[in-house]
Specification:
By secondary structure, the protein is α/β, with parallel strands linked by helices. It is built from 11 helices and 12 strands. The chain has 2 domains: 144 residues, 3-Layer(aba) Sandwich (Rossmann fold), CATH 3.40.50; 135 residues, Rossmann fold (3-Layer(aba) Sandwich). The structure holds alpha-L-arabinofuranose (AHR). The site of alpha-L-arabinofuranose has 12 residues, from helix 2 and strand 9.
Amino acid sequence: MIDRRTMLQVTLGGLAAAGFSIRPAYADLPKLEKKDKYKVGFAQTESNNPWRLAQTKSMKDEAEKRGWQLVYTDAAGSAAKQVADVRSMIAQKVDVILLAPREEKPLIPAVMEAKKAGIPLLLIDRNVDQSLAKGGEDYVAFIGSDFVKEGMQAAEALTAAVDGKAKIIELQGTVGSSPANDRMKGFADYIKDHPGMEIIASQSGDFARDKGRQVFETLYQAHPEATALYSHNDEMTMGAIAAMEAAGKVPGKDLIIASIDGTKDATQALLDGKVLVVVECNPKFGPAAFDAIEKYGNGETLEPRLVNVDRVFTKENAAEYMPEAY
Ligand code: AHR
């Protein structure tokens, strides 16, 4: 009798004999020479919200803890500047690049140029267009949250709280970014089986508090029948709450709110009963990113997609989470 292991060996052997190899593209990725200390480039998208600041702090803390050099850049909300930032890291001959790509398509040249220059690159938190560049082929790996799942979890909690009936305003994140695309998809996929859950308006607030406030104000004026808000991040949620209160409405009563991230302000809003649910998107990437670099430098093969384990926060567990919030 042939067992599973032998069967696998036979199958792989057959593939090799037929000229196929396992993950052939991995062999083409730039290698990382093993060192005690690396010079790491971290290309951040912007620094206009607590999530980004917590992410940057986590990277800086981890570099300091290990005594590694960190070359840090802030693209200030411009994908073009972020491409230039990566080019400058290539010119400075960093050992490895950690890139949080602002948008899915415009950062493709940066990924490809790092590969061509022989510098391993890991995507942190956001992804690039998978039809144009792939983990384990064009870049080493993606480390981050499952944004589609986040959207689904927000939809699930909201649907349960409103008994499957709501007129929803959606505040989207940055247009063309993977969290905006995937959070929109996850939420829409979930509510399509719940005909009473209706998105009546959806627009980008660019993941920013004041833009979120302005966009919500305009959408709510046009749709005063709205009974719920789905916001792709906590900063836009806080902006929308300010707009609701300015309009004399009670967040949590007149509009039921589902949000994503886990900032201090949103956690307080959970405790105050203004927000129903916050699906976690953890920004503290330092330890996971630097461990991945170390493993890659040791010659280990990394999975092309390393997914964070995130939690769901409500009024019930918000106080317990608060000390970790940022
Ligand atoms: O890419 C993750 C998202 O980007 C976070 O949800 C948001 O707050 C940040 O700007």
